[in-house]
Amino acid sequence: MSRSSLAEQLYQLLPAVYRERDRPGGASRGAPPGEGDPPEAGTEPGAVGDLEALLQVYGRFLDRWRNTLDQRYYDNFPDRDPRRDALGRERNCQPWLLPYLARLVDVDLVSPDTEGQREEVTHAVAWRQRKGTRAATEAIAEAVGRMETEVQEGWQRVARTPRIGDPLLPEAHYGVAEPIPGAASPALRARHPGLPTATPDLRYASRPLRTRPGDPAARRTHYAGEPQHWVQANPGGVPCFPGSHQDVSRRTPDLRTPDERRGHYHPRRALLYLAPPEGLCHPDAPGLHWETVWERVGSRDHYRDEEIECHRRPVNWRGETWTCLHLRARTARPLRLVGREQLGAQLDGERVLFRFEHLWFDNRLTLERGRLVLQGCALRHLEVATVGDEGPAVVARGCLFNRLAAPGASAELEYCTVLDQLLATRLWMSDSISVPVPRGRPGGADLPATGCIRYSRLPHVPEAQWQYQGEPSALRLAYSTHRQAVFLDHRFGEPGAGVLHWHCPEAITRGAEDGGEMGAYHDARHQLRWQAVRDKLSHYLPLGIEAVLIPDPRLQCPPPYRA
Predict the structure, then answer these.
(1) Per residue in 287-298, pLDDT tens?
(2) pTM, whole model, 2 decimals?
(3) Bias category Low complexity: which stretches (predicted)?
(4) Which of 355, 273, 360 is nearest to 318 (CA)?
């Protein structure tokens, strides 16, 4: 049993004579310290006397009491504190207390995750004080949506008729380093950033440029996770990237229903440019070759470094003992493994199990024997060579597949997305998205022989084609949809591959069994966060102003420096 720090303090407060008498094998009862019998031979190291054991009981009670008081103190602070106390606890309130703290400040929590709810409670007063402003709108979108956001007010993007005689603010107010002299030419004076120009000036390019942090006109944005300060150069010029947050040109009012491509330029719109999620295929993902992985791991049963963690050990999987190789990436982004690999020879024994987590397999991966368990992985091409009906050969959760071919084998998919090919003789699929029609045999039109598909998306298959080898297929379908899935990018390996667009049909974005989105990013809750942004802004935007969410990949690329 662990020793208590408070018990040790209590024990040291006792006079030395009592501590000496209480020590096992110490001075005899009643004898002065140092004059009793010598310690008995064979006394166990670390043994305690009766008095010290009694104080240990009191000390453990005092430790729990103090820990309870500390937690009561932490529960008064909803905001996130990165520091931890001596016991490893977070110095903020427990998640279950957030709804009660929200009631104290009259906040309706809409965030689907704990981090967003903490931000809602923490900044409730500050957001109310700046209600209706662009700064508050941007702060709410970033806190609730958990992604970088740039906000443009719709009325500033609408073309207006200039009026002669209206005073213009100095150029320095708009971030211009050198003011335009009064005797300048008309072409130079036309570069004044305050002019309400509607026709872009073809002589100049309009785009953000990075500047020093002390620039009074600078704005601060996180590009690819790095904070950068920038100013808009030549706002009246030709936009280098139309339709992005870098485009500030004025247009004719657009009266159409707003979506990500149209209906933006209207006085009653608030344009929110959001950095789209990269998903499992991040452009800056760290990479390793398979040979490098096996060179590092070698024949060791346990290996760990900054990038990977590997274990070889027996595990109990589905009621049976298997020899397992568990490989997991320790990087913040999925680790990209390059090169073809065949699984099977890395382990000895009849029952072998391969378990991979947080990995991106950019080439073909072949399972020659055993079972494969995947968690949070992206696979370009998975080939299963094992044949049998003794349980599923592939078990995947939260994974993105480009091609999955398991002829003669079983596959079990939960919260997965398949983009190009899905082939399995027996298929169990739940809360997943299959872009192609699932097939049971290579090169044929047969469906899987048996299995169940529930709360998933798959293309429509006529009842007459619901067959396997000329017989009716035993594949069952329940609570699923045939609506077309809309992705940010449908190409495997590209940023945003398999990530559902926020204009995807609700039958898919809310079609999972728990009401969340189907597919590989169910646990990321992208759709729920975007909807939470809309719901939250409906209470903070001025009356009649509508928020329009626009995906903007330019928020992942920092602008160049100003010359």
Answers:
(1) 999 999 999 998
(2) 0.83
(3) 25-46
(4) 355
